[in-house]
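Appendix B: complex inputs.
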Amino acid sequence: AQSVTQLDSQVPVFEEAPVELRCNYSSSVSVYLFWYVQYPNQGLQLLLKYLSGSTLVKGINGFEAEFNKSQTSFHLRKPSVHISDTAEYFCAVTTASSGGSYIPTFGRGTSLIVHP
Amino acid sequence: EADIYQTPRYLVIGTGKKITLECSQTMGHDKMYWYQQDPGMELHLIHYSYGVNSTEKGDLSSESTVSRIRTEHFPLTLESARPSHTSQYLCASNPTGGTGYTFGSGTRLTVV
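Resulting structure:
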């Protein structure tokens, strides 16, 4: 079984500052990793995903994440945030050898609050 | 523009009522899912379907039922609503072999 821990429930940051949202996972097998964003009163939207290959993954809206197998982490970063980035961010993991089901386990979310 | 639609967006209903939350997708995805979302908590999988006439229960015990008569439609029914059912319900889909989900905008249910 896999699990996901998002280390911060809330991250306040000023506009144009860099931000890192932390995600650690546990799994005994190879994994696929995801970050989703949820804006107020909306569903989740896929930001980026790591399946294989380069450990640095670039996503939409200027976000990127780095897969670190030795530290079992998949932290999300953005060099300069905007007010519009204020949202809830969810990390998710699924096992790569799930027989094709790929049903993910989600973290509890990190609320990114961007102040002017 | 959303390719997966949930209705209603908001619903307030009395205890004991029967309700159906609708979910439709226009992408031809085989796989569809229902999640329950509460603030500060993980998303919990309630039901999923891998195709027409295929439905499975997820990891969250639920008094709800689902059906999958058409590929594009995956409604969730609560036979008798209780205050403990108050939550946000998210529908999602992905194609066979696909790894990421497309989510609907959710239905926020309040049972009074």
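Chain B touches chain A through 23 residues (CB under 8 Å).
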